């Protein structure tokens, strides 16, 4: 029997959306991470985030099919200098959001956390000096039970 994708294990888009809402609430309540949203954010932020995570975790192209490209996502997170404390606080918010969203499977929680740590500290932090450094052809990285999919 084939193991389900992370997207399927989350209960599909509804499960991912529940986690996105939980994470967004946590970061807005955090005095350090909320700074990233202090200039406003898209009114459909959690829906867009859930679509992005859904795609990254083995679901259909919900983000790139509707909202934009991976390069655009990385550009939004680039050119802000290094922000290690904010990254660590965002990771802590994600850990807590996993509990808030009632993700009970320990292996699934660990996989999702591994993804979030990688995405936060490597993918979204790769271009701290300028958004114009981001290549135009990045693809949404896929994540599985074994980590990043080549």
Description:
It holds the Pfam family Bac_globin. The structure is a single chain. By secondary structure, this protein is mainly α. It has one domain (7-148): Globin-like (Orthogonal Bundle), CATH 1.10.490. The protein contains 6 helices and 2 strands; from the N terminus they run ααααααββ. Strands 1-2 form a two-stranded antiparallel sheet. A hairpin with a 2-residue loop joins strand 1 and strand 2. It is globular, with a radius of gyration of 15 Å.
Give a topology summary.
Blueprint: H1 6-9, H2 12-29, H3 45-56, H4 70-76, H5 84-100, H6 106-123, E1 143-144, E2 147-148
Antiparallel strand pairs: 1-2
Helix pairs in contact: 2-3, 2-5, 5-6
Q: Tell me what the CATH architecture is.
A: Orthogonal Bundle
User: What is the oligomer described by this structure?
Assistant: single chain
* Mean pLDDT rating: 91
Overall domain count = 1
Number of helices: 6
The fourth-level CATH homologous superfamily is: Globins
Strand content: under 5%
Major β-sheet annotation: 2 strands, antiparallel
CATH topology: Globin-like
Provide the spatial order of strands within the biggest beta sheet: 1-2
Distance between the termini: 22 Å
Share of residues in helices:
40-55%
Protein name: Hemoglobin
Pfam families: Bac_globin (PF01152)
InterPro entries: Globin-like_sf, Globin/Proto, Hemoglobin_trunc
Organism: Pelomonas cellulosilytica
């Amino acid at each position: 029997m084939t193991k389900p994708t992370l997207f399927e294990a989350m209960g599909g888009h509804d499960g991912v959306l529940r986690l996105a809402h939980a994470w967004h609430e946590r970061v807005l309540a955090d005095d350090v991470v909320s700074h990233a949203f202090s200039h406003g954010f898209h009114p459909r932020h959690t829906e867009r985030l859930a679509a992005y995570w859904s795609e990254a975790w083995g679901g259909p192209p919900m983000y790139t099919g509707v909202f934009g490209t991976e390069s655009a996502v990385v550009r939004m997170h680039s050119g802000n200098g290094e922000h290690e404390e904010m990254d660590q606080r965002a990771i802590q918010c994600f850990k807590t959001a996993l509990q808030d969203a009632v993700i009970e499977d320990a292996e699934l929680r660990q996989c999702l956390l591994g993804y979030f740590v990688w995405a936060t500290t490597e993918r979204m932090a790769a271009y701290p000096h300028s958004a114009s450094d981001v290549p135009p052809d990045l693809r949404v990285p896929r994540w599985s039970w074994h980590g990043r999919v080549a």
